[in-house]
Every structure is written in structure tokens, then in C-alpha cells.
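Example 3.2
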Amino acid sequence: MKKTLFFLMLLCSVFTTSAQTITWTGSGSNTNWDTAANWSPATVPTAANDVIIPTGKAVVINVAGVTKSIVVQGNASVTIVGGLSFLNASSFAANAVTNWTSGTISGGGTLTNAGTLNLTSGTSKVISQVTTINNTGTINIKDGGYFYLNNGTINNQVAGIVDLMSDNGNITWSGGGSHLLNNLGTIKRSTTSGTVVIEAELHNSGTIDVTTGILYFNNSAIVMTGGIYNVAMGATLNLALTVTCSGTLTGMANGSLNWLGNMTVPTTATFNFTGTTGLIWGSGVLNGGGTVTNNSPIALNFSTSKSITGGTTLNNTSTISLNDGGSFYISNGIVNNQALGIIDIKSDNANITWSGSILHTLNNSGTIRKTTTTGSAMIEATLKNTGTISVTNGTLIFNDPNISLTGGTYNVAAGTTLQWQNVLTCAGTLTGAINGNLNLAGTVLFPAAVVFNFTGTPGINWSGGIFSGPGSLGISSKLNLTSGASKVLNSGLTLNNSNIINILDGGYLYLNDAVVNNLAGGTIDMKSDGGEITWSGGGSHLLNNAGTIIKSTTAGSTQIEASLKNTGTISVTAGTLIFNDANITLTGGIYNVAATTALLWQNTITCTGTLTGAVNGNLNLTGIVSIPVAAIFNFTGTPGINWSSGTITGPGTLGIHSTLNLTSSVSKVINNTLTLNNTSLINILDGGYFYINNAIVNNTASGIIDMKSDGGEITWSGSVLHTLNNAGLIKKTTTSGSTQIEASLKNTGTIVVNSGTLILNDPNTELTGGIYNVSASAVLQWVNTVSCSGILTGALNGVLDLSGTTTVTTSATFNFTGTAGIQWKAGTINGGGTLNNNSLLNLSSGTSKVANGGTTINNSALMNMQDGGALYVNDGILNNLASGVIDIRSDNIYITWSGGGSHILNNFGLVKKSTTNGSAAIELTVVNSGTVDAQSGTLVFYSGVTFTNNVDGIVKGTGTIVPPPGTNFINNGTFAPGGTPGTLTINGDFKSSPSAILAVDLDGLAPGTGYDVLAIQGNATTNGNVSVVLGFAANINDQFTIATTTGTLTFGMAPTTTAAYNGMNYTFDVVNVGNNKVVLKVVQKTVLATKDPTAKAQKIVLSPNPAKDHIVLRNDSGWNLTQAVIFDLNGRIISTIDLKNSNEDFEIRLDDCASGTYLMKIISPEGTAVKRFIRQ
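Structure, written as C-alpha cells:
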């Protein structure tokens, strides 16, 4: 219809030959357009007429006014009611006022409005037929009627104003054709508080000014080329549908500048708004492929999604606020948040995300922050950050596989969370203040060098995921490993920690082809049970610790299963820390274990250098400890190291400067040529064996090995080195059972047995001197072969049990004290050397004992032969020295021999048969220069060897002596029968040489009880002298049968002898009675002279006299003194002193003399002297 009307008008104009100007006069009766009288000429204008409305005139176009053109001048007033059509250019002058109440402006012409055009009433107004209005004045849309641009254009020029003053006074369109609103001037929304919509195709490069109410842009072809957009406080400008932008958009947005549709930027656009509110993006899309530079606040409001698509770039230098829960999609687009830019995520679920499969990059060199709400929001776009990420409220989650953090600042306030999920790539130094939860829960890639250098108290929380190389990560901030999820380092990553890493929960930390360097200032605190440092797969899994690794907080256990290389500190303050990897290396370092905690070494651990620390808990070795060169354990603390199982292997040297406790019943092994030097205390606490297999233990001078458990043996297996060198102390304590040293003990130190039994049981045991203390009821037993040399001392209050082979190749001395002495129960003494026994030696048990190999035994102490076993001297010599005592205390004891060469008993001391009444035999070659005392029973001297009683020898007793027959019995010494007194029986032939002495005590007249008797069961040949000790006042003619024989007596003794008693000297005749008795008869009594009869005897002097505890015998006589006998004044012998080796001055002890007066008879071959002295 509209097109038909247009063509009819065009046809009419063709037939008009010339246009006629018609001017408004207003002469008619009204002001209506269709009143001809109002016109000059007086005709109503048609399409052929140019119309002029002069200044000051008022016209009402009450019908459809048709003109060729119209000019409204000056202060004229036009009211359009029925519409207006013009074909050619027309104008409304500057001061003209046009009120458009209804109808259509059409005709296809161009109207320039320089005046005021008021659109009034609620009726719609229309511009059609390709009609254009160029507005340089003011167009006021005052009422709610729509303003349709139906194939029409409004050009609001630079000076032009379009004022939308009424609610619902929309600029809209219908139908086809143009509906352009080009604004170079100002479009205002004023007056009312309701809504107005521009639904026409607005192309704006001018000013949009919303002072009240709401203005909607609601056309899909709106173009904003630069322009100013002012929105007053309380007012709203809504950009709906599609808006195409370019240039710089400015304005003051103190109200709501709402972006509700699609904004297309094909080239470049800049948002440069001022004001308090900025741009509010409520919904829609930014697209077009161009670049938007935002210098203004943008608020993403409402829960609807917003998107950037089409390869569009948003450069933000201001603040973008995500205020509501709608997601912000970067779908094939880029957001560059520049250095001054802020993206403020203020709402829960206000995610920055993407869809599709193309570009979705968020480059941040400014600030992205999560504020206001306490819930969570996500960045699921490809964040490339070099700027600041700040979380002041709630939770911000990074959740995209292509996020890159190149340096940047990351601030997390207390009570908030920044969570890294998915995959993130880091580079440079990341800083910030972490007072909340920075939580790493995905995969973090480190292609080059990265440093985490955050401040704040909580530090970084790593709850799960992977740190991946091949770069390095420097931890200069606290890193907390939380949750039970595993954490992984891989792909050649190197993690350098100079701060603290807390392993707070039970999740494993895997080092899979990665290295952790815990630097000198770094701490790894394992605060959770089961929070292990471990690995899987191939590649490196190194944990280099130069700082501190702590196990704290919980009472359970955790493990380091990575390849720990430690030069720093390991500290266990709670629970148990376990080393459990085959490649752990401890190069020096400090190891602190608090009371009630444990540090367990399992698997294989290599040690070098000096390991120190305070071990007040359980440092427990349960695996393999490898010592390739030199290592020292120099721990302090009371419990020391506990070695419960496993091996310490060489070929290096391990110095033990700390207490080492061997616990549990499991065996422990040192091997591979290890040398273990102990300067402290090794406690063997349980029954497990301690194997020295191809190794050496040096227990140094300050070292102690305390064997506190039964069965806790020191032993070996294999066939190589197994040496235990002891220069310190080895002791057996605590338990009452037995344990053994089966290694090759080389002792120069001290062996102490406080309880139970310690057995030396190795064929290569060597005792070179040393101290051996055995407590009462304890036993030190030598079995197998023990080689002795030097002086062996100690206190034997328990038993030293010799039950093996004692080898003396050169010289050895037993110089023990104590009450129990040595118990020689079985075995052999050999080696060809000399054994000097200065200790109590008990030959016990019924088992034979052997001395052979050319060995000499010098006994200067007490040798008790207690049981029935034989003592074989096969190719050896037994020297019983002057102070030595051999006490044969049991029947059926044989001192004998079998095979071999020498088998001699040289007695310079005392050999006695005591205690039992049976018989014992000495089957050696006996040379007696001491005393043989048959106190009880029978003492048999074997017939096949020689018994020689030398001049200085004494045979005495009240038992029975069986001498060898014939020439095998040589008696050049003294036979002294009896005891107090008594009878000595000789079972066999008896003989004595001229140097021999028969010594008897005469205490009465009854034989065997009053005086001594030598009862010979055989023939007798008696030569020599009789020595009498008189113990009573005998009378002249008293007789004493001092020797009897059952055979024939061949008598050749000296005819007289003398004795002294009570100051009297007695002379006895010595006679043969009946050829079978030797009888003493008192023939003279005289007063005993105290003056020496010769001048030489007077040169023998006793001083001091009176004496106290000793007296000195000075011999200037030239006599060779042999013996001194001290008598009391009753004639009783107090003591006998050997003077054969005396010098000119010889000190004599007076311990057996009480206070009083005594006589000393001094004997020599040249004569006898008697001296009187007083003991004070």
C-alpha cells in the first residue's frame, strides 16, 4: 500500500510542469492545514508545491499534508496530526517548534530540523518512504507513543539532540527498508523513570545521555563508533541484542550501563568510561574478531552467561567485576588483563570458562581477584599469568589444562582458597602473601626454572596431583602436603627446598624420575602417619638433604622410600620414621631421635663421614648398612643405637663412638672386610647372633662390649677374617645363662663376667696380657684353642673355666686374684712356651688335663686337684715354685704322662695330698726341693720314673707315701713324719743319703700322738741326721721310736742329735734297735747357751733388736747360710726360713711371732749359730 501511494505521487509530479511556492498566511478562520484561506495563494498545498511557514506562524497539519518541500521559519509553530509528506529537501528553522502528535512523515525527502521537534501523545509516529530527518536541533519524545523508523532515517547531527522524555517512547521500526538512527549529536533519556527502547538501527558516534529512567538499545544492527555514553546515578542504559563497536567509547557511567546482548567488534574499540558504576555486562557475547580495550569498570552481573567469541580480544586496563553467578566464557577469544587491569570475581560460580575447541586465553599482567562471597569460582580458561592473583574471599579455582603462571604475585587472605586444578605450567618466580589456602590439586609443569617465594604463615597446600619437569622448582615458601591423595614429582623435575615442606596427611609423595634437594635452610616435616616419600617406575628418585627432615606430631610411622642422600639433619620428635630404599646414602649428618620415638634404617643404607645427633629414642638398624670408606657413629643420648637385624658391610671402617645395642633374637652380620672400631659401648641385649664374617671388630681402649643376653653370641660363618681385637672391655652381665665369643678374639684389654657364663670358643683366640674379672657365681670358660702371652690379671671371684686348649708359645703369666680362681676342667696346655701360674688353679672334673708340646708350667700359687681326672704332662715340665702349692684333694688323681718327651715335676714349693683317704699317684719324674706333704690317704710315686728328694727337699705328713723302687728313689733331703705330731707311712723300701735328715717333733712319749713316727712298710737304709723339735721337758733316758720297718733296717745315721726346749739343750743318742727301729734316747740335759761359740758366729747379727714386724739378719761371717729356724722359749718351731740365696743383709718377716722372746737357729755347713731376739 505504501509503495502504491509513492508511485501515484511520483506520477502526479511528472505531470506538473513547474512547482509553485505556497506560503502560510494564517488568514483563515483556524490554523488547519487544509484551510485554503490560510495559504497564499489560497490553495491547500499539494505534492507540486513548496511550502513556507513564515516566522511566528502557527500551523496545525490536521490532514495528511503533502508538499514538494516545506520550510518552517523562525519562531513558527507546527503541529503534525495527520502526517506530512515531502519530496524534496525541507527544513525546520532553529527557533521553530514542531509538535508531532500523530501521523507519518514520509515522501522520501530530507528534513533538516534545526528547531524543536516534540513527539507528543501516546500515538505512534512513523517516518517512512525513505524519508530522512537530519536533526541539528532537538527532538523531544515526550509521550509513550512509539516512534517508528519504517524505511526512514534519522541523522542526529553533532548539534542535534534526541531527548527520550517518556516511558515507552520507543524509537522502533516495522516492515522492511531502512530504519537507521545515526547519532552524531546527543540522544538523551530524561524526565521519566521508566523504560524507553531504541529498536531502530542506531549508529552512534555521538553522545548517549541517560539522566533518568531506562534506555534500551534493542536492535541487532546497532553500531557504536566511538561516542559518549553518560548514565546518571539511578538511570540505566541497556545494550541489548547486537551492538557493533569501534573507536573509543567514553562517558560518565554513574548509573547502570548494561550490556545485555551481543557486542561485535570487528576491528578495534576502546571502553573509556568514567563514573562510579562503569559498564555492566548482564548477558550476551563479545565477538567480531577485533580488539576491545577496556579502560573502564565492567561489571558482569546477573547469573546469565557471558561470552567472548569469534577470535575477539579484550584488553582490560580497568576493573572487570564478575558480580553474579553467571559464567564468563572465553570461547575462541582472548582476554588481556593488562598491568593496570583488574578482574574481580565477586560471586560464587562466576567462572571464567570456555566452550568449543579454539582459543580461550586469559592473559593476566594485572590483577585477578576473588572477593566478596565465601563460595567458589573457577578460571577454566587458558590463564597466562604474569600479574597478580588475589583471593580475599571464598575460593578461586584454576581449572584448565593450559594455564601458565610466569612469575606473578599470588595473594590468598586468611580463610580463603586459591586452588590449582587440571594442568598448570609455571615459570619464573611466583610471589605473594599466602595467609589462606593456596591448594595445588592438579598437574603443575615446570619446563624450566621456577621459584615459589610466597610469604604468609599457612604456606602452599598440595592436596594431590603432579609436579612435572624437566625444569626445577625452588621452594622458598612453606609447602604443605595435605589429604590422603598421592602427590607425584616426575619427568626429570628438580625440587629445591629452602623453606619448609610439611607432609600433613597420609598421602604418599612419589619421586618418579625426579630430584628433591632439601637445601641447608630447608625443612621437610613429616607430620602424618603413612605420609611416605616414595617412588615408582624408573628414573631418578633422589632426596638430597642438606637441611632438616623431621618426623613429628603423630605417634605412628612413615617411610622415606626414595634414594635419600643426607648431609643434613634428620630429627624424629614423634612416632617412627623409616628409611627404606636400597640407595640411601648418609654422608655425615645429624640424627636426633627424641624419647619414645624411633628412626628405623631398613633396606640398604650407605654411610660415610661422621654421623652425630642426640639419640634419646630408638635409632634402629634393621637392614644393610654399607660402609665403603670411613664412617663414624658419634651420637649422644642415653639409649644409643639399636641394631635389631641386618648387615653392616665394608670394605670401609666404622667408628662406634656411641652406644650400640644389638637387640632382638635375629642375627646381625658385619662382612666384606669391614673394620668396626668401638670406642663406646656395644650392648648385646638379646639372643641373636653377632656374625663377624670377613670383618674385624676393634674394641679400643675406651670401648665396651656388654653381652647382656643368653645366646647373644659373637660368632662367624665362612672361612675368611673374623677378628675381634679387644683393647677395651668385654663383659658378660645381666642374665644367668651362657653366651659365646666364637670369633677370633685378640685380647689385650679386659674381660669381665658379672653374671652367667661367657665362653671363648674359637681356635684362634689370643689373650695377650689383659684383665679377666669373674664375679661370684659367674663363669668365664675357655673352650677350643686359646693362645696366651704376657701377664693375664684380674679378680676371679667366679670361675675361670679352662676346657679347651691353652697355647703358650713364648711366655704367659696367670696373675689372678680372687676366691674362685681358675677351674681347669678339661683340655690341654701346649705351645712350647712357659706358663707362669700366680693364681689359684683348680683342676676339677673327672676329665683328663694335658700339658704337652714342650710347655713349661711354673706354679707359684695354689693348684688344687679336686676331682678324679688325670693331669698329663706329656713333653712338658711342671715347676711348682717356692710359693707354689699343689694340693691333691681327691682320690684317683694322677699326675701322669703318655708319650712325648719330658714329663717332669720340679717342686720348690708344696705338693700335698689332702682331704680324702684314698690314693693318688704322681707318675712324673719328680725332683723335690720343696715340700711333699702326705696329709691323708696315699700318695704314690710311679715306679717307672724317678723321685728325687733333694737336700732342700722335705717329705712330710701323716698319710702314706709309696716311693718308687730301687734307684728311682733318691732321698738327699728331709723326711718329716707327722703333723702335730703323727705317723708317716712309707709303703715300700726307704732309703736316705748322708745328707738326708729325718725330722721329728717330740711333744710326748706316745708314738704317733706324742711324737712323730716314720712307719716303713719294707726295708730301710738310713743315713744322714735326725733333726728334733722338742715340745716338752723330756727326761734323761726317755726313748722315742721314730722310725720302724717291717723289713731290714740298714743303719748309717749320725749317732747323736740335739734339741732345745725351755732354755735347755737336750742331747739324744740315735740308735738302731733290732735292725728294724730307729730310737732316740735322751742322754744329756744342759742349759742352752745364748753366746755363739766362735768368733765367726758372732759376726752374724740380728737388728733391730727388739724388732717389730721384721728383723734383718746381717751375715759378715763368711759362712754360706742355708736355713734359719725360729723357736719360742719352749723349743717349738715357729717358722723355717730358706737362706740359700740370701745376701749379706736378709730381711725376715715376723708375722708368725707374737710379742715375746725367741731364739733363731742359723744353720750353715760351716757351723750353727743361735741368736736371741725380742718381738715387740
